[in-house]
From TrEMBL:
Membrane-spanning ranges: none
Protein name: Predicted CoA-binding protein
Source organism (scientific name): Thalassobacillus cyri
Name of one Pfam family that matches: CoA_binding_2
Domain named CoA-binding: residues: 15-107
Length: 137
């Protein structure tokens, strides 16, 4: 099935239910989009958990090599990786307790979408988390 954006109420509900966001591909470089958006979400009250094997910590939080290494609960996975990485990340995501998968603007994959929907995820792709939060919350 081809990806379809969820309606605004579904997105709003996902943002309301989320307290902690695991950010895959979060950079420790302040000029990177992943850093800027995660910082904005942290400033809005969300806890950010960096998932990037190349860094030790970002935004004052310990970084983990993969979603499966994260030792604390999180509701949302926010992805800053290229689209071709989404199928593998979807399979990793399904092994966590999270049920919200968010791929940033320009990032989408129908195979990953189908897999995540089959595993009861709310899925947003090709959508900026910061913009959706600013508009809907």
């Amino acid at each position: 099935m081809a990806y379809e954006h969820p309606d605004n109420e579904t997105v709003r509900q996902a943002l309301k239910e989320t307290k902690t966001i695991a950010v895959v591909g979060l950079s420790d470089k302040e000029y990177r989009t992943s850093y800027q958006i995660s910082k904005e979400m942290q400033d809005a009250g969300y806890r950010i958990i960096p998932v990037n094997p190349m860094v030790d910590s970002v935004l004052g939080e310990k970084a983990y090599a993969s979603l499966l290494d994260v030792e604390e609960p999180f509701e949302m996975i926010n992805v800053f990786r290229r689209s071709e990485h989404l199928p593998a990340l979807a399979k990793e995501a399904a092994q966590t307790d999270a049920k919200i998968f968010w791929a940033q603007q320009g990032v989408m994959d129908d195979e990953a979408y189908d897999y995540l929907k089959d595993h009861d995820f709310t899925v947003m792709m090709d959508m900026c988390l910061k913009v959706a939060h600013a508009v809907l919350m």
